[in-house]
Amino acid sequence: MLIKFTIITLFPEALRPYLDSSMLYKAQDRGIIGVEYVNLRDFGLGPHKSVDDTPYGGGDGMLLRCEPIFAAIESIKQQSPEAEVILPTPVGMVWNQALARQFAVVGSYGAPGAYSGTAEPTDQGLTTNAPGEPSTAAKRHFVILCPHYEGYDERILTLVDHQISIGNYVLTGGELPALIIIDSITRLLPGVLGGATSAEIESFSEGENLEYPQYTKPAEFRGMAVPEVLLSGHHGKIAEWRTEQSRQRTASRQKSENL
Ligand code: ADE
């Protein structure tokens, strides 16, 4: 396994349908990533398994308390001391493709040869571990702590390695950010996407350039024709056209962002 994601959440049922579909399902099925859910409620206090309380100093809503969060993370870290804790929060660093790429870098953490079943990146390209080799430790382990309610006690930040915002707007909880973070990291891992280069040529892979427009059959649909150059078979001209389209798209998007 390359990356293990442990998600601490009060709402695992909100996450499962997405993570158990399509490419993220395949990435788990192929042993490239592992996903584990920890229900924060299991670490709640008292007979009601309480996880939140009112803010000191007054104010609206409830905050997640320290005790359940510390207990949940400490129990994970006991097994996996190198795990990195991510906190989705609107005050965090804004997530982008460059960060996704950094988080998808898998170093030497974990038992050597722990990754098995599918292709493993090496200096020589992709190799496969011997069949039957145990797949236990991940090379990188992210614990994503999903806040909910109005927020959290600030003291939990002492446990956190990465505070991540997925954009300048406010959501009701950390579950959607967790899905976005996991999805954007996983698709960059070797063996997840079909084409070897599809992750490389896509939007944002080259710095902040957007991808050129693409077309498939039919060549004409309801009067809309595929650009002639793409049917020409002339690879040089096609590459040139794509580069230019990508440049134009990037420039016009940057303009609209400055409105
Ligand atoms: N929690 C609430 N809003 C968020 C955002 N924009 N990014 C990350 N976590 C959040």
Task: Describe the 3D structure.
- The chain has 259 residues and is α/β, with parallel strands linked by helices.
- The protein folds into two domains: 3-186, Alpha/beta knot, CATH 3.40.1280; 203-259, Trp Operon Repressor, Chain A (Orthogonal Bundle).
- The protein is built from eight helices and twelve strands.
- The strands form four sheets. Strands 2-1-8-5-10 form a five-stranded parallel β-sheet, with helices on both faces.
- Helix 1 runs parallel beside helix 5 (175-186).
- The termini are far apart.
- Residues 88-90, 165-167, 169-171, 174, 177 line the site of adenine.
Count of DSSP strands: 12
- What would the principal axes of the Cα set say about the shape? elongated
CATH topology of the largest domain: Alpha/beta knot
Specify the CATH class of the largest domain.
Alpha Beta
Radius of gyration: 22 Å
Order of helices and strands: EHHEEEHEHEEEEEHHEEHH
**CA-to-CA gap between the ends?**
44 Å
CATH architecture of the largest domain: 3-Layer(aba) Sandwich
Unreliable runs? 109-135
Ions and ligands: adenine
Q: Kindly state the mean pLDDT as a whole number?
A: 88
Helix tally equals 8
Main-sheet strand order equals 2-1-8-5-10
Q: Which structural class matches the secondary elements?
A: alpha/beta
The CATH superfamily of the largest domain is SPOUT methyltransferase, trefoil knot domain
The residue fraction in helices comes out at 25-40%
User: How many structural domains can be distinguished in the coordinates?
Assistant: 2
Largest sheet: 5 strands, parallel
Strand percent estimate = 15-25%
